[in-house]
């Protein structure tokens, strides 16, 4: 089942149960997917849909961070709820051990030896883990391995 099919199914369920927050989040994600589709002028692949969903998750995380810094717990709570809803559509996240193994394997594949090779490693690594790990933590892990 594609992401869009899951969203449509959950949208119907949320409508029947009158879950306004869930409806709102699903509609926002569907809107983002549709905007991306219009921008590209074709149907989105599953990878492109996942990229859009990742963007939505990242926006919520950044907003959550900002609201917590500003001591706006009411808004932070709303962002946490939206983030939890979006996480249901994300692929299963890699464990720390799995991520380290993939990073080490990719470093070996590209023959990286120093921090100067970080760009090569990241460009080879990110397609392998798309949506399955946070980019910031991947970046830190690669930097740690290359020092």
Key phrases:
GatB/YqeY domain-containing protein; Arc Repressor Mutant, subunit A; YqeY/Aim41_N; Hypothetical Protein Yqey, Chain: A, domain1; mainly alpha; 7 helices; carbon-nitrogen ligase activity, with glutamine as amido-N-donor; 147 residues; 2 domains
Write the layout of secondary structure elements.
Blueprint (H helix, E strand, L loop, with lengths): L2 H15 L2 H21 L5 H24 L3 H15 L8 H15 L7 H12 L5 H12 L1
Helix pairs in contact: 1-2, 2-3, 2-4, 3-4, 5-6, 5-7, 6-7
Protein name: GatB/YqeY domain-containing protein
GO molecular function, one term: carbon-nitrogen ligase activity, with glutamine as amido-N-donor
Pfam family, one: YqeY
Structure explained in plain terms:
This protein has 7 helices and no strands. The chain is globular, with a radius of gyration of 18 Å. It has 2 domains: 3-87, Hypothetical Protein Yqey, Chain: A, domain1 (Orthogonal Bundle), CATH 1.10.1510; 96-146, Arc Repressor Mutant, subunit A (Orthogonal Bundle), CATH 1.10.10. The chain has 147 residues and is mostly helical. The model has no long low-confidence stretch (mean pLDDT 89). α6 crosses α7 (135-146). The chain has helices at 3-17, 20-40, 46-69, 73-87, 96-110, 118-129, 135-146.
CATH class type of the largest domain: Mainly Alpha
SSE class: mainly alpha
Secondary-structure element pattern, one letter each: HHHHHHH
Oligomer: single chain
What does this entry show, briefly?
The chain is an all-alpha fold. Helix content is 78%, strand content 0%. The chain folds into 2 domains: 85 residues, Hypothetical Protein Yqey, Chain: A, domain1, CATH 1.10.1510; 51 residues, Arc Repressor Mutant, subunit A, CATH 1.10.10.410.
